[in-house]
């Protein structure tokens, strides 16, 4: 078996099919395809973490949780690469995108659902899309990372997450797990912030290609937290 065979490189490297003859469209495609690959890996890690935590093996889940936040950091840095695309560059090929938009990424919505941000309204943007809709519907019904972590807290006899933090020595596994969740939320917030800046830099206040409000919509997501209770308790410590 060769390197190319193992990685299926002929298939992978033939998946970039620009619809224009403009040089910069390739970057736009590669950036977004790479993000989808990283999203696939994060979903893979979150699934393992959910399984381990549900089985009361939180320490074994730490590596998967840490990996998720590291991947998010890499994804955040990739916005700097996309930001080399100027408004003039992007404007030349934007029309070929039609109504496609990152807003329609089923994997990103699935990641939100798997973490615990379960807004059923997003299902309607994927109706009729086959596997994407089915995966989102399943994620909406399945226990999220936050739900299995909170159930683990209850099984351990901790009355609240505030109590876990106030008695970190007693419930150290839960405390450490909670901080891993905050790492993920922190990295996700950073990703959202950099996304807003990059989009504003490239298209300003124009609507998104998929019909969203563009920067205005993205700005409205900045306060989202997958694990809000872990942020609120800090005020009470």
Automatic annotation (TrEMBL):
Q: Supply the alphabetized keyword list.
A: Dioxygenase, Heme, Iron, Metal-binding, Oxidoreductase, Tryptophan catabolism
Pathway named in the protein's UniProt entry: Amino-acid degradation; L-tryptophan degradation via kynurenine pathway; L-kynurenine from L-tryptophan: step 1/2
Q: What is its EC number?
A: 1.13.11.11
Question: Which positions bind substrate?
Answer: 28-32, 90, 94, 209
- UniProt keyword annotation of Oxidoreductase present: yes
Q: Kindly state which reaction or reactions the protein catalyses.
A: L-tryptophan + O2 = N-formyl-L-kynurenine
Highest taxon of the lineage: Bacteria
The record's free-text note on cofactor binding: Binds 1 heme group per subunit.
Cofactor list: heme
MF term (GO), any: metal ion binding
Give the enzyme class. Answer: oxidoreductase
InterPro entries membership = Trp/Indoleamine_2_3_dOase-like (IPR037217), Trp_2_3_dOase (IPR004981)
For the ligand (heme), the binding residues are: 195
GO biological process annotations for this chain's record? L-tryptophan catabolic process to acetyl-CoA; L-tryptophan catabolic process to kynurenine
Q: Does the keyword rRNA-binding apply?
A: no
User: Which family, according to UniProt?
Assistant: Belongs to the tryptophan 2,3-dioxygenase family.
What does the UniProt function comment say about this protein?
Heme-dependent dioxygenase that catalyzes the oxidative cleavage of the L-tryptophan (L-Trp) pyrrole ring and converts L-tryptophan to N-formyl-L-kynurenine. Catalyzes the oxidative cleavage of the indole moiety.
Quaternary structure annotation from Swiss-Prot or TrEMBL: Homotetramer.
Mind telling me what this protein is named? Tryptophan 2,3-dioxygenase
The organism encoding this protein is Sphingomonas ginkgonis
């Amino acid at each position: 078996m060769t390197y190319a065979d193992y990685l299926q490189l002929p298939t992978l490297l033939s998946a970039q099919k620009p619809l224009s003859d403009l040089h910069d469209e390739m970057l736009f495609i590669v950036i977004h395809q790479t993000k989808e690959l990283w999203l696939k890996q994060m979903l893979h890690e979150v699934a393992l973490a959910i399984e381990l935590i549900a089985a009361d093996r939180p320490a074994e889940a730490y590596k998967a949780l840490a990996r998720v936040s590291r991947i998010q950091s890499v994804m955040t840095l990739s916005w700097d690469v996309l930001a080399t695309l100027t408004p003039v560059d992007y404007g030349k090929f934007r029309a070929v995108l039609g109504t496609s938009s990152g807003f329609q990424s089923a994997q990103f919505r699935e990641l939100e659902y798997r973490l615990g941000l379960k807004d059923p309204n997003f299902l309607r943007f994927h109706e009729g899309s086959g596997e994407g809709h089915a995966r989102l519907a399943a994620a909406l019904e399945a226990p999220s990372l936050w739900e299995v972590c909170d159930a683990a807290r209850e099984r351990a006899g901790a009355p609240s997450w505030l109590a876990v933090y106030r008695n970190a020595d007693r419930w150290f596994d839960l405390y450490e797990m909670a901080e891993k969740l905050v790492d993920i939320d922190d990295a996700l917030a950073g990703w959202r912030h950099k996304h807003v800046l990059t989009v504003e830099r490239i298209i300003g206040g124009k609507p998104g290609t998929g019909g969203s409000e563009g920067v205005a919509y993205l700005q409205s997501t900045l306060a989202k937290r997958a694990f809000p209770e872990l942020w609120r308790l800090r005020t009470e410590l």
